Amino acid sequence: MSIAIDTHVLVRLLVRDDEGQFAAASRMIGKAAEAEEQVLILPGVLLETEWVLRSRYRLDKASIFGAMTALLESSDVEFEHAPTVEETLYVWAQHPDADFADCLLSARAAQLGCNRFMTFDIRAARLPGVELLA
Fold it and tell me: Least C-beta-crowded within 10 Å: which of 30, 56, 110, 113?
């Protein structure tokens, strides 16, 4: 069995700005580990988390990248599709002006076997496998 967490839980774990919620989330992670249950992070939660950390908490890309890399390396949580997250972080690091969302969406499309990801977004079209629809 596994447990999925929402953006609020993940943000509390990363930012620790509400001690009560941080403690509750930490206890839940600990209990899940004891019960050998997976704690799952869905792609949408990861997408929202990046947006919250960037817009609400004003964290820079390096800090967000570090937090996500630590999550990827953690044995306490798992991602719905870790290879997509790995590819997302790799592409995001290689393209300083790229939006995290564009990196995640194009990486997931590639993982699903799409050889092209079509967009009207000129900046997104600079990413591997992404093409500008003209």
Answer: 113
> CA–CA separation, 120 vs 48, rounded Å?
22
Residue 30's φ and ψ, nearest 5 degrees, are: -65, -45
Q: Please give the DSSP secondary-structure letter assigned to residue 120.
A: S
Residue 61: phi and psi, rounded to 5, are -60, -40
CA-based torsion, 21, 22, 24, 25: positive or negative? positive
pLDDT digits (tens, 9 = 90+) for 61-111: 999 999 999 999 998 899 999 999 999 999 999 998 999 999 999 999 999
- Spans of all domains in the chain: 1-80, 81-134
Tokens 């194009």 found at: 106
The full length of the chain comes to: 134
What are the start-end ranges of the E strands in 44-83?
Answer: 78-79
Q: How far is CA 28 from CA 57, 76, 91, 120, 124, in A?
A: 24, 11, 32, 42, 37
Q: What is the pTM of this model?
A: 0.88
